[in-house]
Amino acid sequence: MTFDLLTLLTASTLIVSLCGVIFVFDTALRRNDAVGRAWSLAFLAGMLTTLSYIVWDFEPGAWWAVAVGNAAVVFSQVCMWTGARLYNGRSSMFWVGGLVTLVVAVSVPLSGDVPGGWAGGGYMIIGVALFAGLAGVESLRGRMRRSINATLLSAVLFIGAAYYLVRFCFFITIGPFDPVFRIYLGTESATFVSIMLVVGASFSLAFLRAGQVSGSARRTDDTSYSAGALVASSFYRQGGDVVERAARRGRRLFLVIGELNNLGEINTAFGRAAGDEEIRIFAEIFRTTAPETALIGRLTANRFVVLGSAFTETMGERLVGDIESALVDAAVGVGSGLRPTARFGWATTDQTGFSLSALSSAAIERLGGGAGDGRALSPTGLLQ
After folding, report:
1. pLDDT band at 379; cut points 50, 70, 90
2. I need a surface site. Which of 44, 82, 250, 311 has the fewest CB within 10 A?
């Protein structure tokens, strides 16, 4: 039993639209943040892709429909990659994907009159392979690597990337009109594969988003609203116990305090949503850079703290350097250009003795510049 292209495109439109509408509404109602918006755009781009190819199937001379469809299918993978980067608390790099999408769209009219709708096809195929692969790699990094759903998502993306890479290799060697290519790697087979991958990706993304929401709902008395960090009272209670046990064993501890510089300005200029996003990014950077056994607390709205074992005297300062490096690559929102800026203070038990209050006081003194060597990041990411 075989299916013609129009039947497959119609089925693809229905499936992608159903998955996309469910995901978009879920994002709008439950957690409307930059991650959800990026992945919602991926589904919307997928819907635009199938609709554009249906138009081309009815009107083979509509080169613009091919240009829109090719650009949209690449853009959908760009959005998957962007959403994964934002999920991990990294900058979106949206401009890179936007530039590649533009190149794919422009390649269609510049390729001339190529029959079968294959004008610019090579650019489209390698673009999908590239960004599906990048999205798969990003799904195995940072915060996402802890989730089995992200692992499943990466598997789906890698399968898609591998398929399109094979398509590209055959496209440039035997061409799109060879019978082997048309049967196994043509538009019909690619549409069928895409349907399977969309279904798999939609389930993985839905479970990832549900995990974000339920994780935030669980963080009440013992953790902050969106940061996954202990509130001040819980941190000092548990931290005091850690210091007491470390004192008995003679194990060195470090304490690092980080304070966002521009939270008030961002709340005023861009709204509370942007401020909350900055807090989430800052806290996530603390969580991903601090040792796994370290305690992470949120002392005030814009001040976070890490307490952990120091294997060397410079452990705290090294952690500050790691956080600073991550901040340089972080961004608030998609394409906003906003970047969290922060200053830091640190101390070790070698300097203060085994007292949590003494550690905190020493770190806060350095944070405020009292020790003369606290550090702050300028908006450009340079130390000042």
Report:
1. very low
2. 250
In a domain, 123, yes or no: yes
The pLDDT tens digits for 175-210 are 888 888 888 888 778 877 887 788 788 888 877 776
Domains contained in the chain, number: 2
Shared domain for 202 and 337, answered yes or no, is no
- Is the residue at 279 inside a domain? yes
Could you tell me the residue range of the domain that residue 178 belongs to? 5-218
Which residues, at least 6 apart from 174, have a Cβ–Cβ distance to it below 8 Å? Answer: 180, 181
Mean pLDDT of the region 107-128: 84
Question: 237 with 205, same domain?
Answer: no
CB 329 within 8 A of CB 316: no
Q: What percent of the chain has pLDDT over 90?
A: 24
Residues 368 and 256 in one domain: yes
Instruction: Point out the domain boundary residue: 184, 218, 252.
Output: 218
How many CB atoms are closer than 10 A to CB 247?
Answer: 14
Measured CA distances, 211 to 24, 206, 217, 376 (Å): 16, 9, 10, 34
The whole-angstrom separation of Cα 325 and Cα 342 is: 12
Strand partners, 303: 259, 300
Query: Strand order in 303-309's β-sheet?
Result: 230-231, 295-300, 303-309, 253-260, 342-348, 375-376
- 182's enclosing H/E stretch is helix 179-184
Cβ atoms within 10 A of the Cβ of 102, count?
13
Query: Would 162 be classed as within a structural domain?
Result: yes
208 and 248 part of one domain? no
Q: Is the pLDDT of residue 302 over 80?
A: yes
Measured distance CA(182)–CA(196) in Å, rounded: 19
85: domain CATH number?
1.20.1070.10
Q: What's the pLDDT score for residue 217?
A: 42
